[in-house]
Predict the structure.
Amino acid sequence: MHTDNYIQESVELLKQMVSIPSPSFEESMVREHISNWLTDRKICHEVIKNNIVAFNSRFCKSKQTLMLCAHIDTVSPGNDYSFDPYNPDYEQAYRNSATEDGNIRDSREKVFGLGSNDDGASAVAMISAFRHFYNEELPINLMLVLSAEEERSGKDGMSFIWANIEHTPDWAIVGEPTRMQAATSERGLLVIDATSYGTSGHAARGDGDNAIYIAMDDIERLRSHKFSRISEMMGQVHLNVTQINAGTAHNVIPDQCSFVIDIRPTEQYTNEEILNELSRLCRSRLTARNLANRSSATRPDSPLVRCAGELGIEVFSSPTTSDWMRIGCDAIKMGPGDSSRSHKKDEFVYVSEIEDGIRKYIDFIETFIISLTRN
């Protein structure tokens, strides 16, 4: 099948996916639609909860495997959309969507709607690349995973797939909107709920031990703390206190104060190490919401990085998390679209970005195979 046909079908599939609400944990309808679409094109696959898993038709257990994975769930739409996020009026959308030079572009040049950029464009481009090689005899296996619950870190998405599939891949390309640049590392996410405890008393008499002051001292320690291990790819661990709450009345010394710490780890630390290090600094009690959202980094000698270099693909370190943190093999993050459009009103992706994604995924797979056999 010619790649021009892939582009046309990908755009139509993406528009259909956008029209089906698929917030995390509610992906069954869009999963069923994609499953039927694949069946119509004679692509064998397995439905696992709300995930779709497929292997190329000439799969062989003795071969190593490259996985292409993207997620099919979305965040919930904001109230500030200027058009229906599921069924955009394209004329209206284009009136509200000027290019950088202020000119309105042809309506065929964009796909609008929730999930079009994050992560529908990666999903349809990966489906097309997978179809391209589906019936070919290759020296490696290809695996396609379309995952659920990514936006909410759900237990039945990629985490479930990775823990339960019989044949785990050796390498992965994680599809996220990166403008087809290759992220070779991404920061993790560690959210900590902190509570300081004091003793209540009457404010007029200055009784008690003010929990706010205890929290303030801890926050100052956190603000000035520097983690000693520096990542060559990502630099320092990032830490910010983002919420604080205390007090019941103006004349009562508070006996509790709660605050939230947002931390973006690097591959130099596990989340458990960060929690333990900060707990030693603070009088407040620190409790992690989730220790599983780890940082990820590609091996320095990875054939994925070598392939990106051969194709002249720019590499970078990503500040955002993805399903990468839920898989246990060597990986990069790369997909069509732009992360700056994600989780914002009037989401869109350029058709040219989908086209570029399909072609570059195909080129990457071909070059990756050649590089492996050469080395």
User: Anything to note?
Assistant: Residues 351-374 form the longest helix (24 residues). The radius of gyration is 24 Å.
